[in-house]
Every structure is written in C-alpha cells, then in structure tokens.
Write a structure and sequence with these properties.
This protein has 187 residues and is an all-alpha fold. It has ten helices and two strands.
Length: 187
C-alpha cells in the first residue's frame, strides 16, 4: 500500500462515518459529461445539489486510473465541502489528492485545500514551481509553475519569484501561518 492509498483509506473511514453514503448515478453522469478540456463542461452545481452524501463517491474517484476522473473528483469534493458545509470530510479526501501521481491534480488539490484555510497545499505548490509541464485542464492554458506561483501569491500575499525564496519562507513561517477567513489569506 503506497502513501496515497493509506491516506485514502484513513480518510474514507472518517468520511463514511460522517456522511450518509448513497449510490449516486448523477455524480457519475456529471463526470462522464466532462470532456477533460473545458472546465465548464464539469457541472459542479449539479454535483453540489446531490449533497454531502455524494462525498464518498467523489472521494472514490481519486483512485481512478484516469487523470480527468481524479481531477473531477477533486473539483467535486471542493464544491461539496463549500456548498454543503461538510468541510471536514471533503477536506480529508482532498488531502489525499495532494499525493496524486499527476502534477495537475496535485496543484488543483493544493489550491482547493488552501481555499478551506488548510496550509498543507503550500509545499505542494512550492514543489510545482519547478515543473515545466502544462496544467490540464486549464482555461486559458497555463504552465503548472505559473499556476502554482499565482496561487501562492493569492493565498499568502507574498510575491517571491524564485522557488528557493518560497521554500525559505515556508521553512521560516509554515508552522506559524494562520488562516484569515475574512481576507482569504494566510497570515
């Protein structure tokens, strides 16, 4: 069992104990309608309408072989956490995606984890600053490193350029960061 599977197992135990799980074909239908390119083709409102009971189904998507399904699961979990108030189960599942083998899924999960005030996405983004690939999906198309830098700046208020500057900042401040929910930034 790798690290991702271990964390997934622990998260699922908690999620199933907190959320009434119901088989949900609508979530599968919505994800099946996602073309993997156009973010707008993933109907997150329709997923959020299914309620917190859909969190286990969305969490299960994080172990799918297809990157687009895992990315959809990350987006759906965030929508469910924000829209249904089931923050803790959604956040635990999102943290699993921080260990995804695909950098686009990791960066997206890091951004969404941070949107809940969880700083565990910051080191993922710092490591992505050196990634030369493109973010998939992305509208408009962006390099992974550009997206990671934009997210770090947005949630920290800092404007470092170099990955080593970000790493030094994280090492010096990471343990003391506090979420300011009014400004949606780490202080």
């Amino acid at each position: 069992m790798d690290k991702r599977q271990f964390y997934f197992s622990v998260a699922l135990v908690f999620i199933f104990s907190c959320c009434a799980c119901c088989p949900n074909e609508d979530v599968s239908d919505v994800v099946a309608g996602f073309d993997g390119l156009n973010i707008s083709s993933l109907d997150l409102d329709r997923i959020a309408e299914q309620g917190a009971g859909s969190i286990p189904a969305c969490a299960g998507m994080l172990l799918d072989a297809e990157r687009t399904v895992r990315w959809s699961g990350v987006m759906a979990l965030s929508a469910l956490g924000h829209e249904t108030g089931a923050v803790l189960p959604a956040l635990l599942a999102l943290r699993v995606a921080l260990f995804d083998p695909d950098v686009s899924v990791r960066v997206t999960a890091a951004e969404l984890v941070m949107s809940f005030g969880d700083r565990s996405g910051i080191p993922i983004l710092i490591s992505a600053l050196s990634c030369p690939g493109m973010l998939h999906p992305s509208e408009p198309p962006l390099p992974v490193c550009t997206q990671a830098l934009d997210i770090l700046r947005e949630y920290t208020g800092h404007s470092y350029e170099d990955p080593s500057e970000w790493q030094s900042w994280w090492e010096a401040n990471g343990d003391q960061l506090v979420w300011d929910g009014d400004n949606e930034k780490f202080q």
